[in-house]
Amino acid sequence: MTTAAVLLAIACAAMALLLLREVLRGRAFRAAAREREATFDLLTRHSADVVSRIDAQGRRVYLAPSAERLFGRAVEEVLAEPMLEQAVPEDRPQVEAALMRLRAGERQVRVTYRIHHPDGRPVWIEASGFPVIDEADGQYEGAVVIARDVTERKLAEEQLTRLARTDALTALANRRHFDETLAGEWRRMQREGAPLSLILLDVDRFKLFNDRYGHPTGDDCLRRIAAAIALHARRPADLAARHGGEEFAVLLPNTPAEGAAGIAERIRGAIEALGLPHDANPPTGVVTVSLGIACAKPAAAGSMAEALVAAADGALYEAKRMGRNRLRLATSIPPPPMPPPVPVEEEARLRALVEFDRAGAMQMGDEELERIARLAAALLGTPIALVSLVGRDRQRFVAAHGLDSAGTSRDASFCAHLLASTEEALVVPDAALDARFAGNPLVTGAPGIRFYAGAPLICPRTGHRLGALCSIDQVPRPPLTPAQQAVLRDLAAMAMATLERRRAVAEALLA
To answer: For residue 32, is pLDDT > 70?
Structure first.
């Protein structure tokens, strides 16, 4: 064999070896690729997260096998549909906005939206998107999206939200939920030019009911009343709420006054028909309610939702004054009352008030306080005198002469104007001519206050003003003389001393 032939044979052998090595290397690469693909498929098939790839137009071009659990359908079927159409219609705008933010260059976006599962239930998805950029020209090529099912978490969050907005005793909406809904519906009715009606109702002589039958029976009574109210607030936008204590509210969007009056009468009749015994509520001898109704078409400007509440509250007082177990319709919506100023140390003042509440000093029925109220009316020559304590939202009457009521809202309270004041007395000769009170529902409606004179109840331990002793008339009167103001202050000090004794006795009994 010649040298050339030998060299050629060696070269062929070397090439064969190189080719064999490349074949073996290729097989190894393909085996590794298959192994990586199998591992990736295993991970994505069993992962709780669903990985997908979308192109620059927002179309899915890859979807992990685990998507079948999330969507409840085959991957091929899901890939065949546009991504946006899989979201429920209400959530599509936020999904589209997230895709636009990716195209605009954001490095990561997150969006939570709902899809419809084939079994009919909505599924909440939380998706995080990361842009894919062409390294050569920097152009957006699409995105990688990682999604997961967060339905259980969303349902838990919604349950917590419901609990935070629900009254624990009655299962109706609580005061916070009512206030939020009233503000939202006021704005909506303002845009639509539609009427908004409100019913406020209060259980007649409920304190006497609790005294006679006990608080557990009183709680059961409130639950049964709440259930009767809920039956008549059935439209999606209607809201039945516990407004505070034994007072309830029914908010009725898109409802004129006549319609609200009809609903109120059905509620009144349904509660009376429950036949819950109430010996201290003549003449029926059963639990009844009084109702106040107000209706307004929210104006474009200058009106407030609080005015609707004030009008309904005034109508409720009128229903009580006319004999209870009836309804009254407010004839007009007054301008909202000027809210009383809040004391600088309001939270400390409220903490001091809690001590009296725990001692039962904020309940009516103390004979000495009732005597002080009667004495104030007699000495100042007015038909009404009250001893009040002012809480965060409500003013409670702990003694009342000439007025059959347990309290009123703080916003409408005359006494609350003394809390942040340094005056020894507040005297309003004619409330209808005073800018602070001219639009007050207690002036424009029942009890029709025109004259008011009050002296603060000052806590001897903390120095906070907790309420007032006040004298009221339905006709204007001259200002008090210095001697009359001194009498009013002395009676207020006597009332505060009585409240302090009640608190101290209760505290000693609990010690």
So the answer is: no
Tell me how many degrees the CA angle 290-293-295 measures, rounded to the nearest 5: 175
In CATH terms, 166-329 corresponds, of 3.30.70.270, 1.20.1740.10, 3.30.110.40, 3.40.190.10, to 3.30.70.270
User: What digits encode the pLDDT tens for the residues 149-205?
Assistant: 888 887 877 777 666 789 989 999 999 899 999 989 998 988 888 999 999 999 999
Decide: 439 and 431 in contact? Cβ < 8 Å.
no
Type of residue at 80: A
How many CB atoms neighbour CB 460 within 10 A?
10
Contacts of 281-288 spanning 24+ positions with Cβ under 8 A: 281/204, 281/205, 281/208, 281/209, 281/324, 284/325, 287/203, 287/204, 287/209, 287/221, 287/225, 288/203, 288/204, 288/324, 288/325
- Bridge-based pairing of strands 289-296 and 327-329 is parallel
The string of pLDDT tens digits covering residues 1-28 is 577 666 666 666 667 667 667 666 656 5
Catalytic residue of the set 185, 246, 318, 500: 246
> What average pLDDT does this structure show over 449-474?
95
Helix (H, G, I), strand (E, B) or coil at 417: helix
Residue type for position 35: E
Catalytic residue flag (residue 272): no
The confidence score (pLDDT) of residue 20 equals: 62
Bigger pLDDT: 124 vs 286: 286
pLDDT tops 90 at residue 57: no
Burial class (CB in 10 A: 0-12, 13-18, 19+), 444: buried
Domain borders along the chain are 50-157, 166-329, 346-510
Transcribe 466-485 into DSSP letters: EEEEEEEESS--PPPPHHHH
pLDDT tens readout for residues 442-455: 887 778 899 999 99
Cα 440 from Cα 460, distance rounded (Å): 31
Read off the tokens for 212.
């006679």
User: What CATH class is the domain 346-510?
Assistant: alpha beta
Sequential DSSP letters for 385-407: EEEEEE-SSEEEEEEEES---SE
CATH T-level assignment (fold) for domain 50-157: Beta-Lactamase (3.30.450)
Do domains 50-157 and 346-510 share one topology? The answer is yes
**What average pLDDT is seen over the chain?**
86
Inform me whether the pLDDT recorded for 135 exceeds 70.
yes
Q: How far apart are CA 99 and CA 107, in angstroms?
A: 12
